[in-house]
Design goal:
By secondary structure, the chain is an all-alpha fold. The chain has six helices and no strands.
Length: 261
C-alpha cells in the first residue's frame, strides 16, 4: 500500500509540472554573415545568454521574467490563471471519479462517508473554479470538452492544457487499475492511502500556483487549500483506524470446561 502511495505521489508531481508548462515555439537560426546562432524569439541565444531584446522583454529586477515576455508580475499572474484553473478542475474531477468507485466498493462505513464528501466538495470546487476563470467552463477529464456559449476560447485549445489533460487521464486510468483488483478491507486501505498521497500533491499544487494566479482565482485557491488540508487530516485519521483494526488480535471465545464430579 505504501509503495502505491509513493508511486501516486510521483504521478501527481509529474501532472502538476505539466499543468504549469508553457509551450515554446521559438526556433534557432544561423546568421549567414557571422556563422553564429541568431537570437531566437524568446530572446535567448543557443549559448543560453540573453540576446538583444526589447525593454519590455528584459528580465525584471528580481530576475523574474514572465512566460509571455512582460516585466509586469500582475500580467504574468493573469496569463497563467487559465492554465492553473484548468489543472485544478481536472484534479478535482479525478477526485470525484475515484470517490464514485469507492462508494461502490468500499467496506468500512467511514470510507464510504469520506467518499461521499469527496464527491460533493470537489464538485463544488469545480464550480467555483469555473466561476473564477470562465475559460475553463466545460473542460472535462473524460470525453470531449463541452463548448460553453460565448466561450470560443475554450481551454481545450491550449496545447499545455491538452497535455495536462492527457497526463491526468493516464493517472486516473492507472489508479483505477490498481483499485480494480481489490475488495473489502484491502480496497479501503488502498483508496485511503491513495487519498493521502493525492491531497499532499493537491496542497503542493495549490500553494505553488497561488502567486501566479489572478485575485479571483487566488481566493478560490485559498479555499481549496483549506479543503485539501481538512481532507488530508480526515484521510490520515481513517487510515489510522483501518491500521488499528488490522493490528488488533482476533478475539477468541474461551469456554469454561465443565466441572467433574
Amino acid at each position: 500500500m505504501f509503495s502505491f502511495v509513493m508511486i501516486r505521489k510521483s504521478a501527481l508531481a509529474a501532472a502538476s509540472v505539466s499543468c504549469l508548462a508553457v509551450s515554446a515555439n521559438a526556433q534557432t537560426t544561423i546568421d549567414s554573415t557571422t556563422g553564429k546562432p541568431e537570437v531566437n524569439q524568446s530572446g535567448i541565444n543557443d549559448a543560453g545568454a540573453p540576446g538583444n531584446r526589447p525593454a519590455a522583454q528584459q528580465a525584471t529586477p528580481g530576475g523574474r521574467r514572465s512566460a509571455l515576455g512582460t516585466s509586469n508580475a500582475a500580467s504574468t499572474a493573469g496569463d497563467l490563471s487559465q492554465q492553473i484553473a484548468a489543472c485544478l478542475v481536472l484534479g478535482n474531477q479525478e477526485e470525484v471519479a475515484l470517490a464514485e468507485i469507492a462508494q461502490k466498493q468500499a467496506e468500512h462505513p467511514e470510507v464510504k462517508k469520506f467518499a461521499a464528501h469527496m464527491i460533493e466538495q470537489h464538485q463544488q470546487a469545480v464550480t467555483k473554479l469555473e466561476q473564477a476563470v470562465p475559460q475553463v467552463a466545460g473542460l472535462t477529464l473524460a470525453g470531449t470538452d463541452a463548448q460553453t456559449p460565448g466561450n470560443e476560447q475554450n481551454a481545450e485549445q491550449a496545447p499545455e492544457i491538452a497535455l495536462a489533460k492527457a497526463i491526468k487521464q493516464q493517472c486516473l486510468q492507472l489508479t483505477q487499475k490498481e483499485m480494480s483488483g481489490k475488495q473489502g478491507a484491502e480496497f479501503d486501505k488502498c483508496y485511503i492511502g491513495q487519498q493521502i498521497g493525492a491531497h499532499v500533491g493537491m496542497l503542493a499544487q495549490l500553494r505553488g500556483s497561488k502567486d501566479f494566479a489572478n485575485p479571483q482565482l487566488q481566493a478560490v485557491i485559498a479555499e481549496g487549500e483549506q479543503m485539501a488540508t481538512k481532507h488530508l487530516e480526515e484521510a490520515k485519521k481513517i487510515m489510522a483506524e483501518l491500521e488499528g483494526a488490522k493490528s488488533q488480535p482476533a478475539r477468541t471465545t474461551q469456554r469454561t470446561a465443565p466441572a467433574t464430579r
